[in-house]
């Protein structure tokens, strides 16, 4: 007869408590059921495992030899239950995120820090690329959650979108820029040398659409794929750039960049959460969405006060 794990668990409890009745109570079993497990274990070993004394039970030599294995099985079961509880509550597993450059650098870090503190055993992987690429990678199954700038470019795709918060693009210049001392008008934008994000970027798509609607010409000085690179170029006086207000808060506050807005130019766009339509989400992903939603709700309430 083979040794059964349940018999080891029962034996470990009896050995630890020194009493069959107390062991049955702790394991939430009837005493006859526990005794049946102990008989099966004794038959599998082929030797008595304990002797009943007036003061309780006394382990035999075979029982003492078996006890470390029984305690190991008991410990393994306890650890397995703890692990299963973590999995069930979303505290264990993996979270794979794809995010636009702006979202990855200026929106997600504070939320990821909060998530990692709450769920330290969840392995988080984040990949930053432009919004178009995020959609492509989501459709290929590369990530479970995505965050893009603006609305989805594929309205008929298998992707589902949920707006998280409204961001706006602003024109930033260096304090040495000729416009720093004046009040540029909308028509002046057609003469402005712009540093732009690469094709596929959500920031670029929103800017191009706004210029087209207003009949403005865009004069592109150069393209760069990173927001930080563009900010450095603007601060060096190379040109001007339309960037997320989230991305330039620090530099504007420090006086390294000046922020210009044109009332006629609507550059508001949402940061959008992307998932695969009909695809069940892992518990860590559900927990992260819950955190994002709660944070944005709180932020919205505070802004109304």
From TrEMBL:
Residues of the HTH lysR-type domain: 3-60
UniProt cross-references to Gene3D superfamilies, sorted A to Z: 3.40.190.290, Winged helix-like DNA-binding domain superfamily/Winged helix DNA-binding domain
Molecular function terms from GO: DNA-binding transcription factor activity; transcription cis-regulatory region binding
One Pfam family, short name: LysR_substrate
Superkingdom of this protein's organism: Bacteria
Annotated keywords: DNA-binding, Transcription, Transcription regulation
Family, as annotated: Belongs to the LysR transcriptional regulatory family.
Entry protein name: LysR family transcriptional regulator
